[in-house]
C-alpha cells in the first residue's frame, strides 16, 4: 500500500514533532517553535505520573488591574504595552498569571490554551522542598540531622553526614554541580539514570542506586557555599518518599494537590521506570501553580480549608536565610537593581522586598510575596540558540511593583 495514511492533523503533528527530536543529543536541546511544542506536549513524548486532584474546584475571582497590561516595555523595535510585548516575536512567554489577595489581576496566554499543562522545569524543586517543610512542621523530619539518619541507604556515599538543611539550601559541598555537556560528569550520569539527560541501554538506570553509591568527593565543607544541583532535590524527594511511604507524586497528591481546589490533575515527567524527575518534571495548569503559590500568602484560605504551609516556615523563608552561601560563591547580591537577601529551601533567591523567587531552566517562574499577598506564575521557552528573547522575570517583577497593598 503506497497511500499515505493521515489519522488527524493533531496526530500528524505529533508524529512530525517526535521525528524532530534529536537522536544524538538531549531531547530538550531544540529551541524555538519545537521547544514550545515539546514543553506543552511533554506527556505525548514520555511517560508521566499523575498528581491527583480531589473535591470541588476552588474558584479564583478576577479583578483585573489594567495598569499591568498597560505597563510600558522597552524593546529593540520600540515601546510596547505588556500585553503587546507578550504577543510579539520579542517574547517567548507561554502564559502569565498574577494574583493579588487571591484575585487574578492579570492573566494572559499568548502561546497556549488555559487548560494545557506545560512543564515547569526547576520550579518543581520548591514543590519538593515544601513537602519537606510540611513534614518538618509535623515533627517527622529534623532538618538539622544528617540525611542518612532517615536514609541509611546513603551511608557510605558522599551524602553521608550531609545535613538536610544544607541539601535544602544547595550547600552540600559535594562535587556534583549541574552539567549537561560532559557525559562522564557526576550530574550527567545522574541525569541519565533519571532520564532527564541523553541515555542509552548502557547508561545508569537507577538514580537511587547511583546516589547511594556516589563517591565523587567534595569541593569544600558543607554549609559554606551555594552550588546548584538537581541531585539535591532528588535526595529530598527520596526523603519524602521514605517518610511518607509514598512515591513523590502520590505524596504531592495527598499532601497538597487534593487540598488546593485545583482545576485539574497535574503530572510529573517520569521517563525511565516510572521514577519521577523530582528536580524539574512538573506539568500543570498555570492557575493551579498559582493556587500552590497562594499557600505562602495570607489568602491561602481561598484555595485550602486548612493552612498547609506554616507561618513559621514562611517566616523562615523570608528572614532566616544564609546570605553567605551566595556571596561565598561570588554571586552578585543584586538582580536588575533589586537587592537579594539569600537563597533558601530550594528557592533561588529572596529579594529585599520579600519576593520569594524560583526560576525554571528555559523561562519559567514562580514568585510569592507573603507580605504583599501576591503570586506570579509564568512559563516560556528559548527563542533560538542565542536565547535572544527578552527575558520575562524582571518584567514580571516590575508588574508586581505596580500592585499596591491598599488595592
What can you see in these coordinates?
The protein has 407 residues and is α+β, with helices and mostly antiparallel strands. Among the domains are: 9-49, no CATH class; 66-121 and 247-269 and 278-401, Beta-lactamase. It has helices spanning 9-19, 32-40, 42-45, 66-69, 82-87, 124-137, 164-168, 186-194, 207-212, 230-244, 248-255, 286-294, 311-319, 323-327, 393-401, and strands at 48-51, 72-75, 78-81, 93-100, 103-108, 266-269, 282-283, 334-335, 338-344, 347-351, 356-359, 365-369, 374-380. The strands form three sheets. It has an eight-stranded antiparallel β-sheet with strand order 5-4-13-12-11-10-9-8, with helices on both faces. A three-stranded antiparallel β-sheet has the order 1-6-7. A hairpin with a 4-residue loop joins β12 and β13 (374-380). α6 (124-137) packs across α10 (230-244) and α6 crosses α11 (248-255). The protein is globular and about 55 Å long.
Amino acid at each position: 500500500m503506497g497511500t499515505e495514511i493521515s489519522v488527524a492533523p493533531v496526530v500528524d503533528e505529533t508524529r512530525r514533532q517526535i521525528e524532530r527530536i534529536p537522536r544524538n543529543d538531549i531531547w530538550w536541546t531544540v529551541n524555538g517553535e519545537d521547544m514550545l511544542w515539546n514543553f506543552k506536549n511533554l506527556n505525548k513524548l514520555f511517560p508521566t505520573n499523575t498528581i491527583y486532584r480531589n473535591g470541588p474546584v476552588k474558584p479564583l475571582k478576577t479583578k483585573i488591574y489594567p495598569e499591568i497590561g498597560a505597563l510600558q516595555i522597552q524593546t529593540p523595535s520600540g515601546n510596547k504595552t505588556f500585553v503587546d510585548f507578550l504577543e510579539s516575536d520579542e517574547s517567548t512567554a507561554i502564559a502569565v498569571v498574577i494574583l493579588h489577595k487571591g484575585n487574578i489581576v492579570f492573566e494572559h496566554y499568548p502561546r497556549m490554551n488555559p487548560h494545557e499543562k506545560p512543564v515547569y522545569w526547576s520550579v518543581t524543586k520548591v514543590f519538593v522542598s515544601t513537602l519537606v517543610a510540611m513534614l518538618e512542621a509535623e515533627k517527622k523530619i529534623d532538618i538539622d540531622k544528617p540525611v542518612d539518619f532517615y536514609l541509611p541507604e546513603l551511608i557510605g556515599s558522599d551524602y553521608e553526614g550531609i545535613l538536610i538543611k544544607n541539601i535544602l539550601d544547595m550547600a552540600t559541598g559535594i562535587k556534583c554541580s549541574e552539567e549537561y555537556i560532559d557525559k562522564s560528569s557526576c550530574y550527567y550520569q545522574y541525569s541519565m539514570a533519571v532520564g532527564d539527560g541523553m541515555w542509552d541501554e548502557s547508561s545508569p538506570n537507577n538514580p537511587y542506586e547511583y546516589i547511594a553509591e556516589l563517591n565523587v568527593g567534595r569541593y569544600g565543607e558543607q554549609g559554606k557555599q551555594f552550588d546548584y544541583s538537581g541531585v539535591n532535590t532528588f535526595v529530598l524527594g527520596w526523603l519524602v518518599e521514605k517518610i511518607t511511604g509514598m512515591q513523590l507524586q502520590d505524596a504531592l497528591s495527598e499532601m497538597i494537590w487534593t487540598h488546593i481546589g485545583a482545576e485539574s490533575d497535574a503530572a510529573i515527567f517520569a521517563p525511565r521506570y516510572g521514577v519521577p524527575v523530582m528536580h524539574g518534571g512538573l506539568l500543570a495548569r498555570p492557575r493551579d501553580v498559582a493556587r500552590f503559590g497562594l499557600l505562602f500568602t495570607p489568602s491561602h484560605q481561598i484555595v485550602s480549608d486548612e493552612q498547609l504551609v506554616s507561618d513559621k516556615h514562611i517566616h523562615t523563608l523570608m528572614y532566616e536565610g544564609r546570605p553567605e552561601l551566595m556571596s561565598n560563591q561570588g554571586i552578585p547580591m543584586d538582580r536588575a537593581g533589586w537587592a537579594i537577601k539569600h537563597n533558601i529551601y530550594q528557592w533561588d533567591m529572596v529579594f529585599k522586598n520579600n519576593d520569594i523567587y524560583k526560576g525554571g531552566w528555559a523561562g519559567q517562574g514562580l514568585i510569592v510575596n507573603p507580605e504583599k499577598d501576591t503570586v506570579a506564575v509564568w512559563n516560556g521557552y528559548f527563542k533560538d540558540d542565542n536565547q535572544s528573547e527578552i527575558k520575562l522575570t524582571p518584567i514580571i517583577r516590575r508588574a508586581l511593583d505596580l500592585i499596591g497593598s491598599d488595592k
